[in-house]
């Protein structure tokens, strides 16, 4: 007899929304609490929304502060973030973000674009003679 599979970890978006709502907080309030705790004034309610809708997955810095502010074990958030990345639920692509099948690569070409990216190729990459 095969033992049943262990329960799958929850995905991060619904977990964050549930923890926030359990506190009676709006996304704006959650963003303000995170900013105050982390000392970073740049997090908005829009980013909270992206995390909850799983358009983005927060990195380690924000996972740590989410654990503090929401009073949730960091390991639970990290496991949920990993499950979300494995499931490919994020729609944004880029460093540290999972790509969704069928998504266009970030270095795509099209009107007004070239096949080579010029991002980060400013003066610091130029050599002087």
What can you tell me about this protein's structure?
- This protein is mainly alpha-helical.
- The chain has five helices and no strands.
- The chain is elongated and about 55 Å long.
Secondary structure topology:
Elements: H1 12-22, H2 27-38, H3 45-52, H4 60-70, H5 74-87
Query: Helix/strand-derived class?
Result: mainly alpha
What is the number of E strands?
0
Sheet with most strands: none
Which regions have little confidence, pLDDT < 50, spanning 5+ residues? 92-129
Number of helices in the DSSP assignment = 5
Report the sheet-strand fraction: under 5%
Helix content: 40-55%
Order of helices and strands: HHHHH
Radius of gyration: 19 Å
Shape: elongated
**Taking all residues together, what is the mean pLDDT?**
77
Distance N terminus to C terminus? 73 Å
In terms of quaternary structure, the protein is single chain
What are the key terms here?
single chain; 5 helices; disordered C terminus; mainly alpha; 129 residues
Short description:
This protein has 129 residues and is mainly alpha-helical. The chain contains five helices and no strands.
